[in-house]
Design goal:
single chain, 139 residues, alpha+beta, Double Stranded RNA Binding Domain, elongated
């Protein structure tokens, strides 16, 4: 099943690799017999669906989460392997979506008149406090 990441990115199922293992957590004896934990791996560095700009952006932003250029997401919250697969795909989609959001550029702004006035008043008070600590001038 392909992974859709709105608005325009779709990762084909061929680029996704799955592993399943026994999960801890709720389920009683059921846990001991089924491989319900889902592990989804996607190779960011080797993906053919990304543009060069997208790849560089993801490699930079996900650097700490990547192992050998691949990102791995696990899900073991549910008893059902199918539900854990859906959760893992949603987690990976969210990580990629956040990683591809363009950085917003901070625009410098001037302080408001009120804040400048308060800043000056605080400086005057601090100055007066320090002047009172000085030794009196010798006459």
């Amino acid at each position: 099943m392909d992974l859709d990441i709105p608005p325009s990115l779709t990762i084909p199922a061929a680029e996704l690799s799955w592993r399943f293992s026994r999960s801890s957590g709720p389920g009683g004896q059921h846990v001991n017999t089924t491989d319900s934990r889902a592990e989804l791996t996607w190779n960011v560095a080797g993906s053919t669906t990304l543009t060069d700009e997208q790849r560089q952006l993801l490699l930079k932003r996900l650097g700490r989460k990547l192992i050998g250029g691949s990102i791995t997401v696990t899900a073991s919250e549910e008893r059902s392997q199918l539900r854990n697969r859906e959760i893992a795909m949603a987690k990976l989609a969210e990580i990629i979506r956040v990683g591809l959001v363009p950085e917003s550029i901070r625009r410098a702004s001037k302080p408001t008149r009120g804040s400048a006035r308060r800043h000056r008043a605080a400086k005057e008070i601090r100055s007066a406090t320090k002047q009172q600590r000085r030794r009196p001038a010798a006459e």
